[in-house]
Every structure is written in structure tokens, then in C-alpha cells.
């Protein structure tokens, strides 16, 4: 088993070293060894429904109609949410949605915009 990190872009296990970088033959993504070490130290990486890593301040788009618990409101498909904040827990995105207010979303129902 290789001790090289998986690709942060596509999660491929077939990464290889290329000088001071790691490279992925499947998607062509390259990243520095320093960035890989920082990611390993951070631990949990939250990804959207398509496997793209998310970070604080990103904008995301909702990919499924979501009913708001305790209300008759619905967050519609295609709703763009700006300036998200990542948190630990089942619902791992804290955000503010226009017309609804502050709420938490699961990363499996959004894609990075």
C-alpha cells in the first residue's frame, strides 16, 4: 500500500511524486507537498456532493429541494448560498439564505459554485 496522499481533487489513490509536488494521473491535478502536509494535519475535509473540497467563505448551490424543518418553507434547487462556514456535526455547513435566514445544510446536498 502506498503511503502517498490521495488526490484532493478526485480522491484517486494513484498519486505519484513529481519533484516538490504530488500529481494525479487521473484528473491531472498537482499540489505541493507542503499543502498535503497541512491537509493531513487539519484532519477532516468536507466535500460537496461531487467530491470537491469546500472551505470557509465558499459559495455553493443547492442541488435538491430541501424542506425547512418546523416550517412550510422550501429551499429550492439552484439556490445560491454565499459565504458558507464549515462546522463539525451532521449538518456541516452554517449559512444564511436570503428569504429564510440562518440555517445549517448537509454538504451532500450542495455543489461548489
Describe the structure.
Keywords: Hydrolase. GO terms for molecular function: hydrolase activity. Belongs to the YjdM family. This is Phosphonoacetate hydrolase. The protein has a 3-stranded antiparallel β-sheet with strand order 1-2-3. It has a 3-stranded antiparallel β-sheet with strand order 7-4-11, with no helix packed on it. It is built from 1 helix and 11 strands. The mean pLDDT is 86. Helix content is 9%, strand content 29%. With 113 residues, it is mostly beta strands.
Which tags fit this structure?
9% helix, 29% strand, hydrolase, 113 residues, 11 strands, Phosphonoacetate hydrolase, three-stranded antiparallel β-sheet, mainly beta
The poorly predicted ranges are none
Largest sheet: 3 strands, antiparallel
What fraction, in percent, of the residue positions are helical? under 10%
Q: Tally the beta strands.
A: 11
Could you give the order of strands across the largest sheet? Answer: 1-2-3
- Compressed to H and E, one letter per element, the order equals EEEHEEEEEEEE
Compute the CA-based radius of gyration. Answer: 17 Å
Organism: Methylogaea oryzae
Domain Protein YjdM N-terminal: 4-32
GO molecular function: hydrolase activity
Keywords: Hydrolase
Amino acid at each position: 500500500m502506498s503511503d502517498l496522499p490521495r488526490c484532493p481533487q478526485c480522491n484517486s489513490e494513484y498519486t505519484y511524486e513529481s519533484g516538490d509536488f504530488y500529481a494525479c494521473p487521473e484528473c491531472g491535478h498537482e499540489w505541493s507537498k507542503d499543502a498535503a502536509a497541512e491537509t493531513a494535519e487539519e484532519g477532516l475535509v468536507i466535500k460537496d456532493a461531487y467530491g470537491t473540497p469546500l472551505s470557509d467563505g465558499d459559495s455553493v448551490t443547492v442541488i435538491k429541494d430541501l424542506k425547512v424543518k418546523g416550517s412550510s418553507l422550501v429551499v429550492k434547487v439552484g439556490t445560491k448560498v454565499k459565504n458558507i462556514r464549515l462546522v463539525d456535526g451532521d449538518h456541516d455547513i452554517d449559512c444564511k439564505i436570503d428569504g429564510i435566514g440562518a440555517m445549517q445544510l448537509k454538504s451532500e446536498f450542495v455543489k461548489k459554485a
